[in-house]
Amino acid sequence: MSDAIAGSLYVVATPIGNLEDLSPRAARLLGEVGLVAAEDTRHTSRLLRHLGIAPALVSLHEHNEAGRVGHIDARLAAGEDVALVSDAGTPLISDPGFVLVRELRARGRRVVPVPGPCALVTALSAAGLATDRFLFNGFLPAKGGARRARLEALVEREESLVFYESPHRIRATLADLSAVFGERRLVLARELTKTFETFLDGSADALIARLEADPDQARGEFVVMVEGAAPREVGETAMVEADTLLTSLLAEGVGVKQAAGAAARLLGGAKKTWYARAQLLKDGD
Description:
Largest sheet: 5 strands, parallel
Helix content: 40-55%
């Protein structure tokens, strides 16, 4: 067959716990494709048996992903559709699939998202932290020194911070969060959509005490969410610098909104403060 009738790669989100969260579209496509590329074929086989379907399976994980590109591309070129799934949630979100999607798109193949469960969005939706801006950081480094360095680089970020963490590192991560973020509010989400789904809320030290008092709370996979830093106060020196910067940008034809964003990134402070200042400077021209 020619590439004119090439198949599509479907990036299919699967349940993170409750099997009822699988969308009807995802279930239908998993039964229709010629091949399912799965992070762990044994894990995915259980889901497929639950659905009563048995498509062909091939493993695709971090250690073999690059080597699978040619095989999957050949199947697509032959007119077959292929589904990409991870063990749970949306592929590529701290899961394999990026290399495959990047390479197939570079080759002109059709890549189709099939949306559904995603642990970080699920956790944020019920955490009670600001969601207008958030920064997802995936898994923190396993070694303590590198982990603390990563956290220290993020301590002044004003967005809500989101991490994934494993049960065997959660206590060490909380200890580092305590050292770096102090009394900043945290929310831990564990066992999302499962029977023992839990949200724990408080400072890092308070959450460490909760885990010590009830070791069961350290079980399962975690989404760790940290309240963003309070906006920094704008000092007199920063205001003078901002006026110089904003005046230069406005003179170059940069819009008020874009100029305010640049000032916030370079000088700190709230974007709305710089927006008001830029608008005042523009109106004064």
